[in-house]
UniProtKB/TrEMBL annotation, chain A:
<dbReference type="GO" id="GO:0022857">
    <property type="term" value="F:transmembrane transporter activity"/>
</dbReference>
<keyword id="KW-0029">Amino-acid transport</keyword>
<feature type="transmembrane region" description="Helical">
    <location>
        <begin position="231"/>
        <end position="258"/>
    </location>
</feature>
<dbReference type="Pfam" id="PF02653">
    <property type="entry name" value="BPD_transp_2"/>
</dbReference>
<dbReference type="InterPro" id="IPR001851">
    <property type="entry name" value="ABC_transp_permease"/>
</dbReference>
<keyword id="KW-1133">Transmembrane helix</keyword>
<keyword id="KW-0812">Transmembrane</keyword>
From TrEMBL, chain B:
<dbReference type="GO" id="GO:0005886">
    <property type="term" value="C:plasma membrane"/>
</dbReference>
<feature type="transmembrane region" description="Helical">
    <location>
        <begin position="6"/>
        <end position="24"/>
    </location>
</feature>
<keyword id="KW-1133">Transmembrane helix</keyword>
<feature type="transmembrane region" description="Helical">
    <location>
        <begin position="294"/>
        <end position="311"/>
    </location>
</feature>
<keyword id="KW-1003">Cell membrane</keyword>
<feature type="transmembrane region" description="Helical">
    <location>
        <begin position="246"/>
        <end position="273"/>
    </location>
</feature>
<feature type="transmembrane region" description="Helical">
    <location>
        <begin position="161"/>
        <end position="181"/>
    </location>
</feature>
TrEMBL record, chain C:
<dbReference type="Pfam" id="PF13458">
    <property type="entry name" value="Peripla_BP_6"/>
</dbReference>
<dbReference type="InterPro" id="IPR006311">
    <property type="entry name" value="TAT_signal"/>
</dbReference>
<feature type="domain" description="Leucine-binding protein">
    <location>
        <begin position="39"/>
        <end position="389"/>
    </location>
</feature>
<dbReference type="InterPro" id="IPR028082">
    <property type="entry name" value="Peripla_BP_I"/>
</dbReference>
<keyword id="KW-0732">Signal</keyword>
<dbReference type="InterPro" id="IPR028081">
    <property type="entry name" value="Leu-bd"/>
</dbReference>
<protein>
    <submittedName>
        <fullName>Unannotated protein</fullName>
    </submittedName>
</protein>
């Protein structure tokens, strides 16, 4: 019972963070039809911004917004300078299918290399705002702590904010319109360029939150080569695909499904199955629904 | 002129082979070893070029197909003591079967979903080895193609033997791939890539053609995997990390994703960059941090610049320029 | 036209290939590879980055500090000692590639203290320094197999084997924690298998066993699961027989899950500085049991600890002197003696012969004897046990080192009577 409860709690916390990353990937996909492999690199960079703020102000509550703003700014910059040029230069010919993938992979390498050159390869440390010591039931202590609770709350609040933003304004629609048919969108009065940049910045900010919480929920240490960030990339991407790439709710469901299944596999089957479990989940889901759980069928030819 | 090309080409491959043979005798062991690595990359990158450049499908999972080839090779070699050539043939066949399965799944998926599935495959499949003791776990299984035949003489090193095998395999597979691409299949792939509907209307079974592309590409990747594990001597999950799949894409883009003839450029670049970075770092004496990161930074920068400025690769770029020049001269 | 261009391109590509291959090769000249009139070059592979690197990445700094000390005092017969370090990230395939580089490109005389069981096995089988006559000195792993001279003719073990460690640990548990429920965390590869073999031989049974995957993916993804399993299994005494990062991850996660059994840390992952540096509060370590063959690093009354600490901190003023550093410097000290014993013009052959002939008489900081001979490549063969202090330093129980020795076979565990000889003057080879 204790073991089962812990498995679920570990899965939900991990899943919540994956959802954030998946959200970032969905936002970029919806705004520019690009799968951003550099998202984890950008999250890492934002987490370093957060670390710098932590060093100066010694408060997680300052570090978090700094990371978010920094992440959003970097994302906007990449979209403005780099992605626009990319769309202009290599959207035709046989390269078109792979250009965005290659370009963002290149970015990932570049960002990681720059981070290691600037901050070095050694671990640096972030400390969470509340304790990570677990809650107790009787004589057993759960794998769930105030810090994990805070993580869940933050994810829920962010998701609600994004949903409200999308529903109260027509940003959601504009995003989709700009991605599908920039020309028509522009004619019907959508500020296409602005909307695309906005999509990227929102993604940058959610990635930053994912990076910060992934770090403090682990042992707090991170470095350019931290496995946590490779996990963020892979899990976020797979969660987004499972969820169907088109909706925020899909990203959340994808993240939670992935987090829970992986947690159960690690606990009850084998801890060395870590990387196979996501693949199998993905295969099974795509086999039943090639467009993901919440995906739109017509939209999958992207 | 076009008729003559096939025969000419074969001659070309034979000549290249001879040049490589002479070269292999003149350089030191390290270069020979690097030569073998280049040959392995040539094979691996050409499998990507075939799939992505010609048939228009994206795979982030070729590392996994290489792993299939490598594991098939090592198991047949160690358990059934197959001769070297047969070992590699088995690697090709089993990887091709894996590719056919993946291709069948891929035909249902497109764009990001295919990328996602192949990415998950690249991460998931190699670690399957941890589950089955016959696959040797994280530590892997040692792969020994045997010592060079004694008739080649005393001074014939193990690395030179690797180089011979890899270079020969590269030449043969390049020749085959080049011919397949010029055949009906190649034309069908290109037709399907540029316009699926039009291709289907003109009687091409697009999804079958795509699956075939995946199958052949996987076979070639399987060969590359077997060759790779021959040169490093072990087959283990860590020999096929996600970064391997990524470097293959990088190599393909540097080569020009739709020009098989540029494949050397990508392969040489991938092998040479660490060395160049090392030389640059020692020459200008940068900080230790920069030295360790320089190769990564160089590859990434080169990749981004290529995508932005030479998106279809140096060969295609050169061709377009020549064509333009010719057109101008005519007018 | 088109065909011509293609051919031209092919030529261009071929030229690139030729050029890249034909960058000049250095002609062989000296009497022995890696030995010139002014320098002896040695190479080391170990994880300098990546998950498994914490703690171990201080070893090169320690070795270099001692080498520089020797060099400043005239070197070995006038030759300076240089160490080339390559990062293998604890990945066997990378270890193979990097060792190849050390041998072919850097042309080192010998490999020094390459780290990791799986890595050394891969290198031995693929690069095969044994067949090529390249000495592989003082491998940084306790896998018992490396002492097998027939299989690994040029390899010298140094650390007591994992089988020895497990046997001695089992004895300690029987003496101190009889009847308690036992838990074990071990690495899912040869390193772990060797330990399991030792525990089995000692007749020790575990109530909960948790394996974690070795290599790059291993230990950061599932510590919460390990701890849950150990806790659910009711373990009262838990042995952590893993690398530093896994040990630290287990301790850190256990502390936030308030799981506090009696910890017993294996020598591989038991370095207190590394554990503390990864965010584990020193208090968690308090009263945990640990094992070592070298004197405690806080024991500054010990002449070796005093000298090594002085040399190391002079070279690396911002670092902490810890057990990894201590063992690293001791390895460097043995290396210097071996090279000195290999004659005025050392060769790979004479180096191996020198260790076989006089290795067991080399001065060393360890409290257990060396066992080298023409028939044995076994290094140290024993451990002392102690407990971690409130500040997280491993100290012998009651301030007295009680050393136990055994072998990797079915020999008994016995109390050692070894008395360490005095340190040679200035800690230099004589």
């Amino acid at each position: 019972m204790f073991q089962l409860l812990n498995t679920i709690l570990i899965g939900i916390t991990a899943g919540a963070i994956y959802s954030l990353m998946a959200t970032a990937i969905v936002l970029v996909w919806r705004s520019t039809r690009v799968i951003n492999f550099a998202q984890a690199g950008m999250a890492l960079l934002s987490t370093y911004f957060g670390y710098e703020a932590m060093v100066h102000f010694n408060s997680f509550w300052i570090a978090l917004p700094v990371a978010m703003v920094g992440g959003a700014a970097v994302a906007a910059l990449i979209e403005l300078v780099f992605m626009r040029l990319l769309v202009k230069r290599s959207s035709t010919g046989p390269i078109a299918a792979v250009a965005p993938i290659i370009a963002t992979l290149g970015l990932l390498g570049l960002i990681k290399g720059l981070i290691s050159t600037f901050w070095g390869g050694a671990d640096v440390r972030l400390v969470g705002p509340v304790t990570n010591i677990g809650y107790s039931i009787g004589d057993k202590t759960l794998a769930f702590s105030p810090l994990k609770l805070l993580t869940l709350c933050t994810v829920v609040v962010l998701m609600l904010l994004l949903t409200v933003l999308f529903q109260k304004s027509n940003i959601g629609l504009s995003l989709r319109a700009s991605a599908y048919s920039p020309e028509i969108a522009r004619l019907s009065g959508v500020k296409v360029d602005f909307v695309r940049t906005l999509g990227w910045s929102l993604a940058g900010a959610s990635g930053a939150v994912a990076g910060m919480f992934q770090t403090v929920n682990g042992n707090g240490a991170f470095s350019p080569e931290s496995i946590e960030f490779s996990l963020l990339l892979i899990s976020g991407f797979i969660a987004a695909i499972i969820g169907g790439l088109e909706s925020l709710i899909g990203a959340v469901i994808g993240g939670l499904v992935l987090g829970l299944v992986v947690s159960f596999v690690l606990m009850y089957i084998s801890s060395s199955l870590f990387f196979i479990a996501p693949f199998l989940i993905l295969l099974i889901i795509l086999f039943i629904r090639p467009q993901g759980i919440i995906g739109v069928k017509a939209a999958r030819r992207g | 002129m076009d008729k003559l090309k096939g025969a000419n080409k074969l001659g070309l491959y034979v000549v290249s082979g001879f040049i490589l043979f002479l070269l292999g005798n003149r350089v030191d062991e390290l270069r020979v070893y690097q030569g073998a690595s280049i040959a392995v990359f040539v094979v691996a990158i050409s499998s990507i070029i075939l799939l992505t450049g010609y048939s228009g499908q994206v795979s982030l999972g070729h590392g996994a197909l290489m792993a299939i080839g490598a594991y098939s090779a090592v198991i047949s070699r160690n358990s059934f003591h197959t001769p070297v050539i047969l070992t590699f043939v088995i690697a090709v066949l089993i990887a091709a079967i894996g590719g056919a399965l993946l291709g069948a799944a891929a035909a249902r998926l497109s764009g990001p979903y295919l990328a996602g599935t192949t990415l998950a495959l690249a991460i998931g499949l190699p670690s399957l080895a941890n589950q089955f003791s016959i696959l040797g776990g994280e530590q892997g299984i040692f792969f020994d193609v045997g010592f060079p035949p004694p008739s080649l003489g005393e001074g014939f090193t193990q690395y030179k033997w690797f180089f011979w095998i890899a270079a020969l395999a590269a030449l043969i597979s390049m020749w085959l791939v080049a011919n397949i691409l010029r055949s009906r299949f190649g034309r069908n792939w290109r037709a399907g890539r540029s316009n699926e509907t039009a291709a289907a209307l003109s009687g091409i079974n697009v999804s079958r053609s795509k699956i075939l592309a995946f199958t052949i590409s996987a076979g070639v990747a399987g060969l590359a995997g077997a060759l790779l594990s021959m040169t490093i001597g072990i087959v283990s999950p860590s020999a096929f990390p996600l970064t391997l799949s990524f470097s293959l894409l990088t190599g393909a883009v540097l080569s020009g994703v739709s020009t098989l003839s540029g494949v050397m450029i990508g392969a040489v670049t991938l092998v040479a960059i660490p060395e160049i970075a090392d030389a640059v770092a020692t020459r200008i004496g940068v900080s230790e941090r920069l030295t360790t990161n320089l190769p990564g930074l160089m590859v990434s920068t080169l990749l981004i610049l290529t995508v932005l400025f030479v998106p279809n690769g140096p060969v295609e770029q050169h061709r377009t320029r020549q064509a333009r020049k010719a057109a101008r001269e005519k007018h | 036209m088109k065909a011509m261009n293609r051919r031209k391109l092919f030529t261009v590509c071929a030229t690139i290939a030729v050029a890249s291959l034909a960058v000049t090769a250095i002609p062989a000249q000296a009497a022995e590879v890696g030995v010139s009139s002014s320098e002896i070059k040695l190479g080391m592979t170990l994880p300098m980055t990546g998950t498994a690197s914490p703690g171990y990445n201080k070893i090169p700094g320690a070795v270099k500090a001692y080498f520089d000390y020797v060099n400043a005092n005239g070197g070995i017969n006038g030759r300076k000692l240089t160490l080339v370090v390559k990062d293998d990230q604890y990945v066997p395939t990378l270890a193979v590639a990097k060792t190849n580089e050390l041998i072919l490109k850097d042309k080192v005389m010998a490999l020094l203290a390459p780290l990791g069981t799986a890595n050394n096995k891969a290198v031995a089988s693929v690069v095969n320094p044994g067949a090529r006559g390249i000495p592989t000195l003082f491998v940084n792993t306790g896998f018992s197999g490396f002492a097998d001279k027939k299989k690994y003719p040029t390899t010298f073990s140094l650390l007591p084997s994992y089988i020895m460690e497990a046997k001695i640990m089992a004895e300690y548990i029987k003496d101190n924690f009889a009847g308690k429920k036992l838990g074990l965390l071990y690495q899912d590869d040869d390193f772990g298998d060797d330990a399991l073999a030792g525990f089995k031989q000692a007749g020790l049974n575990f109530d909960v066993k948790v394996a974690y995957a070795s290599g790059s993916q291993g230990d950061k993804v599932s510590p919460a699961q390990w701890v849950t399993k150990l806790q659910a299994g009711g373990a009262e005494v838990v042995i952590l027989f893993g690398v530093s990062s896994a040990t630290a991850a287990a301790l850190g996660t256990a502390s936030v899950m308030k799981f506090a059994p009696q910890w017993i840390l294996g020598s591989v992952g038991g370095d207190a500085t590394t554990i503390k540096a990864s965010g584990v509060p020193a208090g968690v370590l308090y009263n945990a049991v640990g094992a070592s063959f070298a004197p405690a690093t806080t024991d500054t009354a010990d002449e070796y600890v005093k000298l090594f600490q002085e040399i190391y901190l002079k070279a690396n003023p911002t670092e902490t002197f810890d057990n990894n550093v201590m063992v690293g410097m001791n390895t460097a000290f043995l290396t210097a003696q071996a090279l000195k014993a290999a004659g005025t013009n050392p060769t790979r052959k004479s180096l191996i012969a020198a260790i076989e002939k006089s290795g067991k008489n080399f001065a060393s900081a360890a409290l257990v004897p060396l066992n080298y001979s023409t028939t044995s490549h076994v290094g140290y063969n024993g451990y002392w046990f102690g407990k971690y202090s409130p500040t997280g330093d491993l100290k012998p129980a009651g301030g007295v080192y009680t050393v136990y020795t055994t072998d990797s076979g079915n020999g008994a565990v016995v109390k050692s009577t070894y008395k360490r000889p005095a340190m040679p003057a200035k800690g230099l080879p004589n």
